[in-house]
Amino acid sequence: MDATTEHVGDAVGTAVDMDDLMQKMAEHKGCGTSGGSGKASCGSGAGENDLPTEIWEKVKNHPCYSEEAHHHYARMHVAVAPACNIQCNYCNRKYDCANESRPGVVSEKLTPEQAAKKVLAVASTIPQMTVLGIAGPGDPLANPEKTFKTFELISKTAPDIKLCLSTNGLALPDHVDTIASYNVDHVTITINMVDPEVGAQIYPWIFWKHKRYTGYEAAKILTDRQLQGLEMLTERGILCKINSVMIPGINDQHLVEVNKAVKSRGAFLHNIMPLISSPEHGTVFGLNGQRGPSAQELKALQDSCEGEMNMMRHCRQCRADAVGLLGEDRSAEFTTDKIMAMEVNYDMEGRKAYQAMVEEERVAKVAAKQEELETLAGEQSDIKLLIAVATKGSGLINEHFGHAKEFQVYELSTAGAKFVGHRRVDLYCQGGYGDEDSLETVIRAINDCHAVFVAKIGGCPKADLQKAGIDPVDQYAHEFIEKSAITWFKDYLDKVKSGEIEHTVRGDAEIRQGALISAA
After folding, report:
1. pLDDT value at residue 435
2. 60, 305, 477, 508: least CB-packed within 10 angstroms?
3. What is d(CA 182, CA 155) in angstroms, rounded to the nearest whole number?
4. Is the Cβ–Cβ distance between 67 and 129 less than 8 Å?
5. Per-residue pLDDT tens over the stretch 53-87
6. Cα–Cα distances in Å, from 168 out to 221, 264, 366?
7. Quick one: which of 355, 323, 316 has its CA closest to 64?
8. Spatial distance between the Cα atoms of 170 and 141, rounded to a whole number of angstroms
9. Phi and psi for 286 in degrees, rounded to 5?
10. Residue 175 contacts by C-beta under 8 Å, 6 or more apart in sequence?
């Protein structure tokens, strides 16, 4: 999945000049550690100076593997893999569903040939699109012919695009050599348990070696295959991200053990996601009333696991046919009828030139953050707080409050500004008018935040936010997020020291299920 001609693995799992890289990865099982805490120094928040060069080249413009990159680069998924070999109690694969945003949902299935044409069309229209992923709507490795045919076509016609695969891991050990042969350098495995007793509560059945298994036996086979596949991939230098769904009362505490298990087997990144379970989704958990976690519960679990390895905080739990920056979906622009009628001119040099401009903008953002961060040196305070930011991307505060479909959340402290998540919300502005019911849901979604940074905001929502104890901040419109957040936080600390304001701890917030319905 390298944009260069240097690949990690070949068809038989060996690699070109891999000794040094594998030694580095063996030392820290995929992520480095610093100090005595064991905390990883790589992961989604890592920069160029934090990683071996070979790994940086793989993640620097991958929006799912780099939190910094996700502000600037886009991804797309193609829905070529409809069949699945396991059943999850949180999953219901849906077709022809353009108004719902969650994994397993697509509007239309594609053939490998249609998918290849769509990739070229999207990449020509969105030059910052750098990654093609196959994530379903079933399991890509339960549909190996379609999956690898798609990779074959795209690697020939668009060799600058990174190739990604997401799998439940049941069939993974059987396909590792093929994955390596197609230079798929990023694989995501969904691992929700390493204890079959827990797994039996999540997976009703699996289908393996032409036989259906249920209960403890099914979960035992699944976890053994997942961990075996993870080890095989990391031995070949393929970067692995682990997705885990946090299910309160079932695996929430157990995910700490999952985190340790995948860390020890070389996982690069761990993404703990909230359960999506509403009755209208038709899943077992949705119908039996299984709740998802609150924002505070999710963050606490992520924070506790971060002592072992870095966490992915910017996941959007994308549809299996998502297109665009994380947090946006432009798939409606690229239906099969539209792409088949397009005259596509794949301009690789033009794409490179555009991405070079993106890198200049990115460097400027990092420099601005670092410059402002230096002004915090010497500040003594235990205060940590959250802020919400309305942004359309590029690391800028560039979205109107009423137009925001989500808010990015940062934790501020004397260490700086740290991205910790996002909150999807219902649009406040509907046809030019503010929807007060929507405003109430927005406030509940960011209720744990002390401030919300926006490019612009009207008088009515501003007053309601202030009444709720959330400071609406619009003086940093179109400026860099982290630089502005640090500036605001310094001023906040000064006001606390002077007694102008009293710092209070905010309450919990909702992870909105209804807000996962797309407005596109």
Report:
1. 62
2. 508
3. 8
4. no
5. 777 677 777 676 676 776 678 888 888 988 899 99
6. 12, 19, 35
7. 316
8. 8
9. -65, -40
10. 141, 144
